[in-house]
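Appendix B. One record, verbatim.
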Amino acid sequence: MPPNDDDPYDVPLTDRFTGRWQQNHGNLIMAFLAGLLILGLSTLVYRQVRFVPPRFPDGDSLAPQRKLLQQNAGIGESFRFRVLGAANDRGKMVVAVFTDAESFPQFDKSVQTTTTAISDGVAEGAIDRSGLPGSIAIGVFHDENEDGVLNKNTLGAPSERYGFSNNPRVMEETPLYEEAEMELPSDGATIDLSVR
């Protein structure tokens, strides 16, 4: 039977879909999607292989790191400390420097604070002596839970080990500034402190 041009179902199936595809701008849509795919892949490849020159920090941003390296190495204007008597190696040892009786022994009001790790019950580190007066007092405590404060029990007594320079005898009250006051150690010197 000859094909009937008036009957749309008399046209072969592939010709029917091809005609509709062309009527709906299918080739244009496919070209657009192919272009997007090529653009996306090109962007990914470019980002993977492009050369990014290394960024070096300027001198001002290196100053704090340089100071920290000097402290840790014990060079420059610093003295070293060694804290003995930690019950265990958990947490950190907090060492604070005081320069007056008004702030002593409130650790949050110290002029300089440093924390250091504990190994075999001993903590070691360095304190920057630049800008410190001729006499100072040092307070130290074993911050086992690493919350940054000297924890106390319900009676108000410290529940973490603590101590001061000159190792004054501590009973119910904290020592006076004058009892813990010491001459500023010389550059490169090492002092021993104890916690109990």
